[in-house]
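Lecture notes, unit on protein representations.

Consider one protein chain, 285 amino acids long.
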Amino acid sequence: MADRKTDPKTKNLQSNIEPAFRFKGNYYLVGQVTKPDSNGNLVSVLHISDATNQLKIFCRDQLCISGDLRPNSLVHVEAQLVKGQRGVYWQGKYIEPANFSLIGRHLTYLPSALCPVDGGTIRLIELVSRISDANLRVFVQKVIMHPHVAVQYLTCPANLYENYNFAGGLLAEAIQTGYAITMYSSLTQEERDLGLVAALIGNIGLTQTFTSDLKETALGTMIDGRKLTIEMCRNELSQLHQVAPDISAKLQNLLTFTDTKPTHLSDEINRLIIVVEACRTLPSF
């Protein structure tokens, strides 16, 4: 009986199948280690993740890595499934830092491997899909997927002492508030859209003032993160204004209110503020 390792039929079958077991895409690099294999050759093991999955890529040829790969950053990956002595594995063919300006900012890139909230990335994507206005959907994704925001949005708390004072608390609060808003049947579709956006990014300034290990950043010792939200959204609000000026103005009013409700706001925005804050103060799940 022919040895399966040298059987020509098996070789032909492998050569036909293996090229099909390839993939390429953009993922977050959530871990990387370089170590020698059993033969003493250096192997880089990359742990990558998107909103639904995570896997490891083995790079035996260091030349397949191009550019400076930084932890918790988005990378472009091309890999192939190969068979080794210990089974099949994904072998890296080409890896480089991803370019946001070329690929866009999509929530499907968010690294589920780093998300402390069970199913958090999928529930976030589902909530954003409920926003009927396409311009607002794009706006939310651009704000959350900013390179200096995305991972922190998944991992930092909503505060340090009250509800949602745990790693992932900001996302958990946003999700619970968002689902609560979708249940308000008295809201118009536009009001529900605006309320959802406010629920999801209204406190996004906290990503710059809290850390995932429940501490304040240097900036956080000087300013309440909620007051940074409008500044962090300024570019995206400007872009939104170009295509939907009325929606942009309403959203800016909704995101800039303080505990002392401004008197110049419309009845619609005042009502939305009350609804969003009522939903936001619900006990954490």
